[in-house]
Amino acid sequence: MTHIFRAKIEQDEENMQLDRADRKLLRALVTNGRATQQELGDAAGLSPSAAARRQKALEDAGIVRGYRADVNLRKLGLGATVMVTITLDSQSEEAMGAFEAAVAEGPSIIRCHLMSGRNDYLLVVRAASIEDYEIIHRQEIARLPRVARIETAFALREVVNRTVPPRLLG
Fold this sequence. Notes:
By secondary structure, the protein is of the alpha+beta class. Helices cover 43% and strands 18% of the residues. It has helices at residues 3-14, 20-31, 37-44, 48-60, 93-104, 130-141, 166-169, and strands spanning 80-88, 109-114, 121-127, 147-154.
């Protein structure tokens, strides 16, 4: 078996192909994660038991990773969305591991992405205000290990917030 063929098989095992009913079911779940089996079946053109089987298959395949509440953080007093780019003093495994472990404990950090390009990480932080972010910056962000540079940008307004690109649900 050639290396290219083996890589193609591994890729196919990792990427599940969805048929039209699966896409409809997934669209219904993305819209309402608390939908009943009857509602999911109606949305996908399936019986409730068939919808349940397909939903379980999507979960077992790791496509549906879980269900959670979509919390309006603004209503809870966290109206400022802050994007923070971080450059570490080293890209060694030790430096990145220490940074990632500390970020996982950060009480104001809601997302962290390892990046390519000029910066090493992108953090998304929620704060009550710019003044609140100043405290978060001093007490959380600036204390993260191995940080060489921090750059901050404030979101003016959220334009799109999706968990799934619409083209996948087509």
